[in-house]
Specification:
The structure is a homodimer. With about 475 residues, the first copy, chain A, is α+β, with helices and mostly antiparallel strands. Chain A is about 20% helix and about 35% strand.
């Protein structure tokens, strides 16, 4: 069996914790591991590392690789040059599998989003086995979940005749209006689509050719065994469409197996509230929170003190550069805030004050006329690219750990409290070859202070 | 006429905007001027600068002086070494007036808190004139405001016989329980105490001697014309009591004049909401706020983005290191948050955002055009670098501990309450060679106020 993990989502409804450049699947909200890592671990139980293809946006690829490499050596990560919803991502991944693994035709492919919470591994594995049997018979297999309420954000599956370990699908309705959702959610023989799929790759490609030739034709032109990527100029011609609208609503070759495990789509702050442990007043408090008499609320603090008094059914999320305060019944509108900020080019939608990089992260502490100050953490064994800047000088002070700096070909080792000046155009690199985290303060000075003012000479993360 | 402006309050109910070291009277929330400055301007219309005594806590004295000096030359500011509520502050100020101005006995003293909003200057001045006539006749004069509702946080005045421009007072009840407040607020002939007072200084001292000898005896021992201050060791023996409980509830020599102007005690976030301009949804939005569908709410952002969705009747206040989210009917409980933080030694109650240095830390209390104020803590045995600044002068006041200052080669030892001026380009250092923490207030002035404007000559942390 092959796996495809969809790791390209934006998670706009979990703003301000998720950002365009650090989406929800990368977050660890109350856990040690991110949702992506939890998903990868779940799939690794069933499928070996070399047969799991993680597909993500090129913007997230370094972070995805970094997170996955903590769980397995050499995770397979392929990138879309642009976000185009699930249909192009799955099509590209299936073609990648067909091109790179001989004999893949005779196996099945299991597609999993990276934002599902599933705890009951045993029943999950058992349902995957059920689906496998159906997929091998030539069906596009979905996993059905018994509806709890009239959710309009999911797809609904109306089942027909029983077949081995599942049902034929009579009808698939993606994101119905609230009247239809209401009707469906109360009806027997109707299920939510869990977002996971299973199929034989050649079955998938045939259906794709039939119903979405615009995707089939482009994807089929490339041979991914030659390390080919779909260039941006071709990729941008792909339709921006989900697999649900593109194939599932149209195909008459669908089957469904009932997902026997628990299941939660972590799509909103309400769902985070729902899965989190509550105190006696039904509050979820995370971080530095001081509350008086609130109930049924989620209060999240990234670092600062958040004091709350008398809240009911509220969501409060505080991050370094943005705060959200929202009625718990209005969490779907967080997406509107995200879209508004994007339209306004307000970069609190795009980045955190803290920006994650393959080598660690940095946080902008302060900026002003002609200067910018960052706290930079370089993780053990990591190295920033060998680089120079045309418009800024930099000054580094080591806070903790030890830094190896190469400046104009000369090696320096800096311990806490020591510093170095890097003049405009000087070729330099920063490295942490030690076992402790390295933290430095960087002060940039210059007329132009822009992340794009960088010439890279060497880079261990392939960014040259 | 003399004036006493009470500028020592803590404003715990306006946390997190007000802090122990930067209380509400110093804040400018939606205005160009702080409440203290507005109050001073109002009193300057009636009384000349040299006859207005501003009394505050020693911790706030540098900021009070700085703010007042923008409105008049040489404002008179006297300090309490410790906060002891209004009775000791007024007693000390009256004695200061008697000692420093010959002929003060024959004039009257007007006492004004620094957290009242009054817009109608004409009627305010007219009420002051009414009170003056009563005070000259030997009454302790209060200013009455017609109650709007059953507030339990104010004093209530029950009037008796009419006298010139006012009434004799039958009864004065400070902060009644809610049942009594309810009864009083609906009764004719009952007024709120506005917090302002007027009296002849010798009348005040006689009443003080009669009802609060514990204050009279200590205050009377000092001669303020000799520049005397009440030392901490004496001051700490003064009872911690308001003028309302100490004198007003007891004296049978009270009169009241009706305050003909508008009046608002800015004591809570609700009152800030009430006086602020609202949009069509009855929201007050200050700073970087993005709202969807909220109403009847106050949303305040100091710097970050605050996004709100579907709020009703809420207070949201965001500052650099703390966020408050509070039901608008629960604003009195903000004080509980403040007290809890104080008990927990959480310094988000005391100061704003703190920056740690090898020698201790500093917190920016306030900054504006041409000035910046910090609270600086130097840990025992630590020393800041020997330094000078090209663009700013500095003024240091010791709050606690002892400071060793070297200024242009000269050694100075400063104890609490003492201060030193450091001119532009003067070479100076600050050291705490003792065993207690040293805390100082620093006021920087200059066209360029930048951490980078520093020339270091010597530094025990290798930062030269």
């Amino acid at each position: 069996m092959f796996g495809i993990i969809l790791a390209g989502g934006s998670g706009s409804r979990l703003w301000p914790l998720s950002r365009e450049l650090y989406p929800k699947q990368l977050l660890n909200i109350q856990n040690k591991e991110s949702m992506l890592q939890e998903t990868y671990r779940r799939v690794l139980d069933i499928i070996p590392v070399e047969k799991i293809v993680n597909v993500t946006n090129i913007k997230h690829a370094p972070n995805v690789k970094f997170q996955l490499s903590k769980l397995a050596d050499n995770p397979v990560v392929i990138s879309e040059p642009e976000s185009k919803n699930t249909a192009p991502a799955i099509a590209m991944s299936v073609k990648y599998i067909l091109d790179n693994y001989s004999g893949a035709k005779n196996e099945v492919v299991f597609v999993v989003p990276s934002d599902l919470k599933i705890k009951d591994t045993k029943n999950f594995v058992s349902s995957v086995k059920d689906a496998e049997k159906l997929a091998k018979k030539g069906y596009l297999v979905t996993f059905g979940v018994k509806p709890d309420y009239a959710e309009t954000g999911y797809g609904y599956i109306k089942i027909g005749d029983e077949i081995d370990n599942g049902y034929k699908v009579k009808k698939f309705v993606e994101k119905p209006d609230s009247k239809t959702a209401d009707k469906y959610s109360q009806k027997d023989g109707v299920y939510w689509n869990s977002g996971m799929f299973m199929f034989k790759p050649d079955v998938f490609m045939k259906e794709l050719e039939k119903y979405v030739p615009a995707i089939y034709n482009i994807v089929n032109r490339f041979d991914f065994s030659k390390g080919d990527h779909i260039p941006f100029t071709d990729f941008e011609n792909l339709p921006n469409i989900s697999i649900d609208y593109a194939l599932m609503e149209k195909s008459d070759n669908l089957a469904m197996t009932v997902l026997k495990s628990d299941w939660l789509d972590v799509g909103s702050w309400k769902s985070i509230y729902d899965v989190s442990k509550k105190n006696i007043d039904n509050n979820v408090k995370i971080g530095h929170v001081l509350d008086i008499d609130s109930k049924d609320s989620l209060i999240y603090s990234s670092s600062k003190l958040v004091a709350t008094i008398g809240l009911e059914n509220m969501i409060v999320v505080d991050t370094d550069d943005a705060v959200l305060v929202c009625d718990k019944n209005r969490v779907q509108d967080v997406k509107k805030v995200y879209e508004t900020l994007k339209q306004q080019h307000d970069n609190t939608q795009m980045v955190h004050k803290t920006v994650y990089r393959p080598w660690g992260y940095y946080t902008v502490l302060a900026q002003g006329n002609g200067f910018l100050t960052k706290m930079i953490q370089v993780n053990p064994g990591q190295k920033l690219s060998v680089q120079s800047h045309n418009h800024r000088s930099e000054h580094w002070v080591v806070l903790s750990g030890m830094a190896k700096v190469v400046l104009e070909g000369k090696d320096l080792i800096l311990s806490p409290g020591h510093s170095v000046d890097i003049e405009v155009k000087a070729i330099h690199s920063l490295q942490n070859p030690y076992e402790e985290n390295l933290q430095i303060i960087e002060v940039q000075k210059g007329d132009i202070l822009d992340e794009d003012d960088i010439i890279r000479y060497e880079d261990m993360y392939g960014r040259v």
